[in-house]
C-alpha cells in the first residue's frame, strides 16, 4: 500500500512540474522554428500512443501522449540522423522553404538551442514572481554560534565573522555559504572572512554529514558547524526581482555543473543522483510545504533540464550543436553514417544513465524495493 500511496500523493505534483518544464522546452524549439519558417508537424507532451489532441490551422498536431516522461517537436525535413526527408523524396521549392534541413546553419542552431534557453527563461520568470511576492530568502553572511569541535572551530572561525569569499566564490548571503559547503564534504575550502575591519583567510574541511528525509533516503552533505539567524525573506521590486532571479539562475547552474564535474572525476559521490521516482518523491515533499516551494523546485528542475540538454551528447540538443559546430569548421555536415553511430552511442549513454538513476531510486526507497520483491516471491 505504501507504493500506491507514493503514486497517489506525489504523482500529481510530479506530473505537473514535468509537464510544465517539458512544455516550455518544446515551446522554445517550436517558436523559433516557426519564426524561421519551418513547418511543425507534431508537438507532443509525452511519448507513445496519443491520448488526446487537436490539429491547428497551421497543420501542427498538438497532442498529449501516454508516457509523460518527456516530449518532442517534429519538424518537417528533420530525421534522427540529421538527414532530411528530401534524401528519400524529391522536394518542391515550396517544401524546401519550410524544411528544417534547408535552413541555414545559424537558423538550425538557433532552433536547437531555443529549447534549453526556454527552460532558463522559465526559471527566471518563476523566481522573479516568487521574489516579488513571497520574497527571496536572505540571511546576512555572518557567523552565529560556532559549534565546538566543528570544522569551523578547527579552522579558527569566530562568532561575528562575516563571510566574504568561500572556495573562490563571492558571498552575498548565508545561503551562498550553505550551498558551497553542502557540495564539499571532506574537501578543503579557502574561506575569507572579515573580522574587526580586516580580512582573514581560513582553511576549513567540511565534515561528512548524512541527512535522512522522512522516506528514509540518505544524502551526504558537507557541514561547517556554524549557525545562523532564522531566514529572512526580502521582497524586491519588479526590476530587482528579475535581476536577482538571473543571478540565482546563474549561481545554481554553475554549482550544478561543478557537482556534475566532481562526480565525473570521482571527487563526489553519485549517491545524490536521482531519477523519475526520486524526483516524484521530492515533488510530493515540496508540494506539502506550499506553492512557493513547489514553484521554486520547478524552477530548479527547469534549470537542470536546460543544462542537461546542452551537454554535448548525441540525442540531446547539445549533441546537435556539437555536430553543427563541426559542420561550421568543415564547411559541410558529417556523413549520415557517422551521425548515425553518434546517435547510437548517445542513446546508449542516456539509456545507461536512466538505468543507473532508476536503480539508485529503487535502492534508496525500501518500500519500492519490498514491493518488487513481493512480486517476485
Shape assignment: elongated
Low-pLDDT sequence parts: 80-87, 371-377
Please write the string of helix (H) and strand (E) elements: HEEHHEHEEHEEEEEHHHHHH
Biggest sheet, open or closed, and with what strands and sense?
Answer: 4 strands, antiparallel
The termini sit apart by 17 Å
How many domains? The number is 2
Helix/strand-derived category reads alpha+beta
Sequence of strands across the biggest β-sheet: 5-4-6-7
Counted by DSSP, the helix tally is 11
State mean pLDDT (0 to 100 scale).
83
Number of extended strands: 10
Helical residues, percent: 40-55%
Give Rg in angstroms: 24 Å
Strand content: 15-25%
Please outline what is shown here.
This protein has helices at residues 2-35, 93-97, 105-133, 151-155, 174-182, 238-265, 276-288, 291-309, 317-330, 336-364, 366-376, and strands spanning 40-55, 61-75, 136-138, 162-166, 169-170, 189-195, 198-204, 207-212, 218-223, 232-234. The protein is α+β, with helices and mostly antiparallel strands. Helix 3 packs antiparallel against helix 8 (291-309) and helix 7 runs antiparallel to helix 8 (291-309).
Structure keywords:
377 residues, alpha+beta, Pdz3 Domain, 2 domains, four-stranded antiparallel beta sheet, 11 helices, disordered C terminus
Descriptive notes:
Helix 1 packs across helix 7 and helix 3 runs antiparallel to helix 9. The two termini are 17 Å apart. Helices cover 52% and strands 19% of the residues. The strands form 4 sheets. It has a 4-stranded antiparallel sheet with strand order 5-4-6-7. The longest helix is centred in the N-terminal third of the chain and has 34 residues, at 2-35. Strand 8 and strand 9 form a beta hairpin. With 377 residues, it is of the alpha+beta class. It is elongated, with a radius of gyration of 24 Å. It has 2 domains: 2-39 and 76-133 and 300-376, no CATH class; 137-234, Roll (Pdz3 Domain).
Amino acid at each position: 500500500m505504501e507504493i500506491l500511496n507514493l503514486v497517489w500523493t506525489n504523482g500529481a505534483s510530479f506530473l505537473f512540474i514535468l509537464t510544465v518544464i517539458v512544455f516550455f522546452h518544446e515551446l522554445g524549439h517550436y517558436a523559433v522554428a516557426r519564426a524561421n519558417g519551418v513547418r511543425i508537424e507534431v508537438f507532443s507532451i509525452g511519448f507513445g500512443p496519443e491520448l488526446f489532441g487537436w490539429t491547428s490551422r497551421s497543420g501542427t498536431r498538438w497532442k498529449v501522449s501516454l508516457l509523460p516522461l518527456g516530449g518532442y517537436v517534429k519538424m518537417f525535413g528533420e530525421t534522427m540522423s540529421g538527414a532530411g526527408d528530401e534524401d528519400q523524396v524529391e522536394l518542391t521549392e515550396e517544401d524546401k522553404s519550410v524544411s528544417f534541413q534547408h535552413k541555414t546553419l545559424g537558423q538550425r542552431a538557433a532552433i536547437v538551442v531555443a529549447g534549453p534557453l526556454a527552460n532558463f527563461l522559465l526559471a527566471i520568470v518563476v523566481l522573479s514572481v516568487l521574489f516579488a511576492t513571497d520574497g527571496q530568502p536572505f540571511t546576512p553572511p555572518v557567523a552565529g554560534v560556532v559549534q565546538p569541535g566543528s570544522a569551523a572551530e578547527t579552522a579558527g572561525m569566530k562568532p561575528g565573522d562575516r563571510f566574504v569569499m568561500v572556495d573562490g566564490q563571492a558571498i552575498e548571503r548565508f545561503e551562498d555559504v550553505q550551498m558551497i559547503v553542502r557540495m564539499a564534504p571532506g574537501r578543503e575550502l579557502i574561506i575569507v572572512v572579515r573580522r574587526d575591519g580586516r580580512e582573514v583567510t581560513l582553511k576549513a574541511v567540511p565534515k561528512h554529514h548524512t541527512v535522512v528525509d522522512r522516506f528514509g533516503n540518505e544524502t551526504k552533505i558537507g557541514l561547517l558547524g556554524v549557525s545562523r539567524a532564522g531566514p529572512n525573506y526580502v521582497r524586491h521590486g519588479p526590476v530587482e526581482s528579475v535581476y536577482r532571479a538571473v543571478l540565482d539562475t546563474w549561481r545554481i547552474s554553475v554549482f550544478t555543473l561543478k557537482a556534475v564535474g566532481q562526480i565525473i572525476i570521482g571527487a563526489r559521490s553519485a549517491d545524490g543522483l536521482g531519477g523519475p521516482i526520486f524526483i516524484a518523491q521530492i515533488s510530493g515533499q515540496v508540494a506539502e510545504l506550499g506553492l512557493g516551494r513547489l514553484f521554486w523546485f520547478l524552477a530548479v528542475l527547469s534549470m537542470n533540464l536546460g543544462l542537461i540538454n546542452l551537454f554535448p551528447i548525441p540525442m540531446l540538443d547539445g549533441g546537435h550543436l556539437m555536430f553543427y559546430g563541426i559542420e561550421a569548421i568543415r564547411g559541410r555536415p558529417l556523413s549520415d553514417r557517422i551521425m548515425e553511430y553518434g546517435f547510437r552511442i548517445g542513446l546508449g549513454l542516456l539509456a545507461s544513465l536512466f538505468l543507473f538513476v532508476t536503480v539508485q531510486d529503487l535502492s534508496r526507497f525500501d518500500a519500492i524495493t519490498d514491493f518488487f520483491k513481493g512480486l517476485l516471491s
